[in-house]
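Sorry to interrupt, but I need a hand with the structure work. Go ahead and set the record down below:
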Amino acid sequence: MSNELVVEVDSLECRYGDFLAVRGVSFGAVRGECFALLGTNGAGKTTTLEMVQGFRQRSGGSVRVFGRDPREQPDVVRRGTGVVLQQGGHFGEISVRETVNLHAGLSSRRDDAARVLERVDLAHKTGTAVQSLSGGERRRLDLALAMWGSPELIILDEPTTGLDPESRKRMWQVIGDLKAAGSTVLLTTHYLEEAEQLADRVGIVHEGVLAVEGTLEEVLASRPARVVAEVVSAPPGWWPQPPAGVSITVGDQRGKPTGVVEAADQQRSMLWLVQQADEAGVELGMIRANPASLDEVFHQIAGGQA
């Protein structure tokens, strides 16, 4: 992965009348990486992507794709960009092969239809009418068209919505291959597992504002790791006083006394709890160690707690 910026967004704004839908969003994506833009419905993700593509007029800020303004030089930007929209539009009566050939005739990029369809596992469907494809197969066709000619930038707006787990994993593999080949990927998704699987960096938008942005490790560092321990037997009222940087919450789970220990250092907090229990003759039952998750960070921001 190089440090060459393919997409650069600075203080981006979009206004609908008196409503400011996107407010000062800034991020960048370098060649060969996947940047995932996350957020609840209506957070401003799709509007941001539309401004990156030059399809929507921005109210403020700047966008550069390949160093060009997509509003001033749309042809240059579109020649190097492939897009999967939330809902693809195809002629249902024509075949998969004819759909790809039609797209090829409208594109300045060159590729081989058989190769592209093989990569998305549609080689056996070339003669099938698009209207006869399953939902997962249609999304793979959308991706085949977006990746035609190996564009420098691929924009994926919720590309796996409605897919079964196996189809989703196939899409992930293809997207990973595109990154490895040097394409930059801008992704929006409601599947946080998908972002964790694909993204090198993530940004979470809430009410038009980019609330957090960074590598997955940097974003997760904002939340502590958690150790959950059930107590089998202990003296009445036993729970040790935690050291600095460690918190403990006492409760019940499955009808058993339980302590939830949170700390930035998961190993340190687990070791501390086990040592305290051993010194006090306390018998611990099930112990579960969970690192911070993107799901926790997302819901904290969506709930207005960040």
Observations:
- The chain has a mean pLDDT of 88.
